[in-house]
Amino acid sequence: MSIERKPGGRGRPRDPAKLEAILDAAYDLFLDRGIAATPMDLVAERAGVSKMTVYANFQDKPTLLAAVFDRRRKTMRLPDLPVESHLNLSLDRLAEFGELVVSVVTRPEVVRETRLMAECAADQPRLATVFYTAGRGEILKRVVLFLKGLTERGVLAINDPELAADQLIGAWLGMTELRQSLGVAGPPSSSAIAKRVRYAIDTLVRAWSTDAEPRSADKKYTAAGSSRRPRSTLNLLRIDGHL
C-alpha cells in the first residue's frame, strides 16, 4: 500500500462538520475503490474540502483509515445476552441475538468493510486487532459467557464453551459471507436468517441438553423437553470403540 505523508500543522481549530465530511468521503471511497486506489486528494474532492484541510486533520492515509474504522467501531452496539429463568426463554434471547448478528454481518457495506480490513491487515495489524475485538471478538465473548451461564446452571453440559460458541456462530453464518464476498449471492432474507439461527441453536441443545428443566410447553427447542439426554455427535461416530 502506498502511503502519502505530510506533517500536520497546528493551524486553526478543527471544524467538526469538515471532519465528518472527510470521514464520510473516505469511508465511501475506501469501500468502493479500495485503500490503495484512494489518494488523499480524491478524499478531499469528495468531501468538498482542500487537500490541506485533510492533512490538517490526518497526517497520512493510515491515520485516516484508522479514524474511519474507529468511528465505525464506536457505532457497534450489541444487545445484552442474559441467561433467563427458563431454558426456552434463554434460547429465545440467544435466537434474537443470533438473528441480529447475522443480519448486521451480512449487510453489503459490512461485508465490504470486512473485505477491506482483510486487505489492509498486514500493514495495519493493530487496527485489524481492534476491528476484530470490537466486532466478532465481542460477539464470541458474549456467546461464550451465555453458554457458560447455562452450563453452570446445569441445563446444558458443555465442556468447552469457547469451542461451542465458535461453532455456533459459524453455523449461524455458514457460507453466506463467502458467497456475498464473491458476488454470487446477495444478503439472506430475514426468514432465511431466522431458520438458520434457530436450526443451529436446536442442534446445540440436542447435543448438550441435560434435561434438567421441565418439559417445554411450546416445544420450540425440542431437546429441552426430551425424556433422555441426547448423545453427542462424537458418540454417534463411534463404532466398536473406534472413530
UniProtKB/TrEMBL annotation:
Keywords: DNA-binding. The keyword Ribosomal protein does not apply. It comes from the Bacteria. InterPro entries: Homeodomain-like_sf, HTH-type_TetR-like_transc_reg, HTH_TetR, Tet_transcr_reg_TetR-rel_C_sf, TetR_C_Proteobacteria. Residues 16-76 form the HTH tetR-type domain. Residues 39-58 bind DNA. GO terms for molecular function: DNA-binding transcription factor activity; transcription cis-regulatory region binding. The keyword DNA-binding applies. It holds the Pfam family TetR_C_7. PANTHER family: HTH-TYPE TRANSCRIPTIONAL DUAL REGULATOR CECR (PTHR30055:SF146), HTH-TYPE TRANSCRIPTIONAL REGULATOR RUTR (PTHR30055). This is Transcriptional regulator, TetR family.
